Amino acid sequence: MGYAIGVDVGGTFTDVVLRSPPGEITVVKCLSTHYDPIAGIVSGVTRVLRGVDPSQVTRVVHATTLATNAVLERRGARVAFVTTRGFRSVVPLGRYARVEEDRYDLRFTPPPPPVAAADCFEVAERVSARGAVLTPLDLDSVRRAAAEIARRGITSAAVCLLHSYANPGHERRVAAILRESVPDVVVSSEVWPEIREYERATTTIMSAYIGPLMASYLSRLSDRLAELGVRAPVHVMDSAGGVISADLAARRAVATIESGPAAGVLAAARTGFPDVISFDMGGTTAKTCVVRGGRPEITHEFHVGGKGSFGGRRAGTGVPIKTPAIDLAEVGAGGGSIAWLDAAGALRVGPRSAGSSPGPACYGLGGSEPTVTDANLVLGYLASASLPLSPGLAGKALDRLAEPLGVTRERAAHAVHEIVSASMASAVHVVTVQRGIDPRGFVLVALGGAGPMHAARVAGRFGIGTVVVPAYCGVASAAGLLAGELSTERVLSRLDAGDPAEVFAELAAEAAGDLGVSSGGDGVRVSRSVDVRFLGQSHDLTVEWSDDRPVLESRFFDRYEQVYGIRQRGEIELVGYRVRVTLGAPPADLAPPAPAEAGQVAGSRSAYFAELGGYTDVPVRTRDGLAPAEGPLIIEDAESTIVVPPGWTAVPGPAGAVHLRKEDA
Amino acid sequence: VNDALTAEVLRNALVVAAEEAGIVVVRSAYSTFIVEGSDASAAVLDASGRLVAQSMATTLMNSMALKAALPELLADIPADTMRPGDVYVLNDAYRGGVHTNDLLVYRPVFTGGAPAYFAATMIHVSDLGGLSAGGMAPLATDIFLEGLQLPPIRLATSEGLDRTVEAVLRANSRTPDKVMGDVRALVAGTAVAAARIASLVEEYGEAGLAAGIDDYLDHTEARTRAALAELPRGRFGATYPIDDDGLHLEKAHHVRVTVSLEPTSVENGTVGSGIGVGRVGDGPEVAGVVVDFAGTDPQVPAAINASVSQSLAAAVFAVRCFLDPAIPMNDGCLRAIDVRLPPGSLLNARSPVPCGGRYVPIYAAMEAIFQALSDAVPERAIAASGILQPFSIAAVGAPYWIHLSYDFGGVGARRGLDGPDATGVHFGIGRNSVPQVEPVESRCPLLVESIETVPDSGGPGRWRGGLGTRTVYRFLADCHVTTRGDRLRIPPPGRDGGLPGRLGGFFRRHLDGTLERLASKVNNVRFAAGEAFVVQTTGGGGLGPPSERDPALVAADLEAGHVTEDGAAEDYRTFAE
């Protein structure tokens, strides 16, 4: 085994992590280059490889926000949408929900559709829900559509015909004809053959929208790395935490939309605890995810580009994507979030962020509005480290809240800290309580620059008694990439499927083909699951497959009770089939950082703890050589600051982690 | 600061409790209306009947029903007779309910041995009798034709469902298994929310939770009054027509409203509806609003009447549309809005007139307020909209399959903005509640031939009304079609020189292809296999003279297919030149 590199490009920083064959870790953080992310990657990789022969690198795993950003900034390819005659209005009409403030907004205008009405085309054909051909495909209608698409200069097309999950024949023939004149064609039965035409169509459209961009980006990235002497294949993390080839990522680009956050969750999943809640708080957003039995929760539908809360993933407000993704909740609050007073004088935080420009007031870069980081500085949780911070500017910014509220500066700062902890808690709530999972008994894993400052407070709200701050928590996503296995999933919606074994065999062969292996090959693991529902219901649940019917039924009944709290029995039906193919053994753990000097007490400073009546002088320690110590306490290292409130104890954990414990939780 | 903070945390926590209940109900229900489209409703109330929180998917229609019916439940079944684990149900339209198929389910949450809060859920269940399968009875002449009525009764105890109640429900349903599946889902939803409320009581203490709720209701009231204070002072009136009552097709009925935005001194409790407004502050200058429907036509023995809770919902919704949209929906907001509903009118029905067709009068009420407030605030004016057009398609006999759904009309143009196509301005329901083709075809013997926007259906104007849609269902088996349409005879007017939206309708396409227009409200019209049912919705009204429309916008409409060349030439003459 050679060297492995993980590269995570975020909004502010590009993180590069190098693992040597014995497992030593080198970390480089450099500024992201928005004009061309590859420039930042090249400089990061160059620095991390100092003294290492680039040809010794055998693996490069990349998490990219290219797909997400293309969606959010609407920078993808112009797409022509081709569907069954009679249905070209379906995508332009959309299926948005009116949520939150939309509901009472008479001036609400639906978001523009992912394809303009004039770029939607119809072909004459019809297939039934059972896959029978009711109207044969009219090839002339396809040729007319192809000619018009070409005439309009559109080079990317998405094809989604009614009931193509049940019979993909027409879609394939449409694609074959379109490909004669349209360079990039994506068909729904290949991207994600699941029932419900709208989500299948948008999933296909988004793949056609991002695909060309992704293909050219990844091919340029490979070229630039090759110029550095790194000739290892570039792999990309997909939204479900699997790793796929650059080629598959280009073909199924829609599967990479949650690439970055997925990597962070994988890092959290490898802290040695089976049941954890991953809590990743950065500058503008925070993300949470539940990991049970070492496996992150996976969702099969999420939304991109939607309303602010929960990261635009709010069902119905964005474009639905039906591919597996790590089931994150995201809130628009992070270190840079701005605190403000609403019309009735109540204190609010976010979702607006000061970002990196002008940044929090204490950065001294011209920002004057109070942010969470300013509040944390006023409270004494933060101190100047690599970046000099101005307590004076932070205090002035907080006074903009304190004066109208008629409270002291530190009370205002404390309220900001509390409100942000509450919105972090709401993200935890979404992935746990809201899904019928009791968070007590889970371990909270704090990641990201700001996560460890708020983690204990968030944990306390849920009665969670253990917080883990892993080594490398500030570059968690890049480190998580090295834990990803080559893996992908295939799905098929099919009512009345004859023999499930045949369906599974076919899906497994296709998924293995996606990874460039054979499904019976060495080290290839295949897992099967089915979508099951009670006969007469419309929502299904995914459970692990068993060909023993009573076993399958009891799995479904158990899952149903777990999710809905109803113990129910009855006739079930299978409506969908899923296969995940994974290659190779799980990669080795990361070695902990080499201990530096055992300088335990780095000093002390005054920090605010409401339960102690205000400011108290608390010890400040470093992570290296930490001995068990009771809060209040602050632990600092190069990437993060851990706040240990009163009642919590900090102890060194394995692999360079710090564990926080609260006895009475 | 800390109190406001706690209040904010509690507000979120209680909304989440309602959200959780709603998710459980919608995912575990059987009613086809719920599973493929419309969402479940869930709310948290306190024992004094205050609406404390509701889930996002809960329409104001349903939360107002849950609020209005709780005191009725407590009147029949005193709180001190309730036991932990008990669950109650009712659907009586004259006592807060909506109509037969909407079951309101309550579970008390106990603190200190007495019910302090109620977790409530509500959905349109699969079937509870009445004139047509699925629950629509557009030609009912009294409430007894609308199905089984339930006064407040105990539905379950900690031992499980009450067997007598179950037997009665099953005996009165065309789909007994499904209706009981729905009932179990409703009960399970209340259990989830109740557990969450109980844990909040534990965390914040009985008094702490109550104080937190008081604080955030007060805060919401303050925000609502602050927003009302920004509206101009004055009295603004409007009238909106209803096509017909389904039985006398030439006779229109009218809803009249006067919206008073004046500094008012409101005496305690003088409210026409008896609910919706509690006490108001003691100062003489209170920024509130009085919405008075005096002059509205009397109730009729036909299905175009509304119960109090539904009319209240329409009034509050319409007023809210002219305030800061971000204000939370709870009792604090209701306190600032005084709604007066004349007893025995279309908007405050008394026994025994039918109430199931409440969409029709309350949308007229909503539109009347929109028009009155558009006069008050011209920069936020909106022209009238196409209405939501409910319909059901069902098997002619057992075993029953039912497709109950609706399509949306186009929204009226707004000043500076075209109206959205085929969407629900009303109650803020989005297009996500319209079922998709593939699951419907998997379940029912029909084929959807097309779903199209109707070009030229948006009322022409400087800002154009939103388009209606046309959906064609071809049947593979004989079936019954039932409809409940309005604004299919009297088109939604434009404003300030804008033209009305174009009328839609319900149609039968015969085997020979000819189209026959059905009345807007029909009950169990039999269709033969091979015939098709066409649902075409009405477009929204335009705003401002069409001659003032930017030619570039007309060109873009042509490109997108929103208008035809003929339509552009006829409706926008400047463009033709």
Content-based structural category of chain B = alpha+beta
Radius of gyration of chain A: 26 Å
Give the uncertain stretches of chain A in residue-range form. 308-312
Tell me the major beta sheet of chain B: 7 strands, antiparallel
Largest interface: which pair?
A: A-B, 70 and 82 residues
Discrete helix count of chain B: 13
How do the helices and strands line up, and which of them pair or pack?
The complex is a heterodimer of chains A (665) and B (577).
Chain A: E1 3-9, E2 13-19, E3 25-31, H1 37-48, E4 57-63, H2 66-72, E5 79-84, H3 90-93, E6 120-123, E7 126-127, E8 133-135, H4 139-151, E9 156-159, H5 169-178, E10 184-187, H6 188-191, H7 197-227, E11 234-237, E12 243-245, H8 246-251, H9 259-269, E13 276-281, E14 286-292, E15 295-296, E16 298-299, E17 302-304, E18 319-321, E19 325-326, E20 329-331, E21 337-341, E22 347-353, H10 372-378, H11 391-405, H12 409-431, E23 443-447, H13 451-461, E24 466-469, H14 476-481, E25 486-493, H15 500-515, E26 524-534, E27 541-544, H16 549-564, E28 572-583, E29 601-609, E30 614-622, E31 629-630, E32 633-636, E33 641-644, E34 648-652, E35 658-662
Parallel strand pairs in A: 1-4, 4-11, 5-6, 5-9, 9-10, 13-23, 23-24, 30-32
Antiparallel strand pairs in A: 1-2, 2-3, 7-8, 11-12, 13-14, 14-15, 14-20, 16-19, 17-18, 21-22, 24-35, 25-28, 26-27, 26-28, 29-30, 31-34, 32-33, 34-35
Chain B: H1 2-28, H2 32-35, E1 41-46, E2 51-54, H3 60-76, E3 87-90, E4 102-111, E5 114-124, E6 153-157, E7 160-161, H4 163-171, H5 176-204, H6 206-229, E8 234-242, E9 253-261, E10 289-292, H7 308-320, H8 331-335, E11 337-340, H9 359-376, E12 389-394, E13 402-407, H10 437-443, E14 446-453, E15 469-475, E16 479-483, E17 505-509, E18 515-517, E19 525-527, E20 532-536, H11 551-560, H12 565-571, H13 573-576
Parallel strand pairs in B: 10-11
Antiparallel strand pairs in B: 1-2, 1-5, 3-4, 3-6, 4-5, 6-7, 8-9, 9-10, 12-13, 12-16, 14-15, 15-20, 16-19, 17-18, 17-20
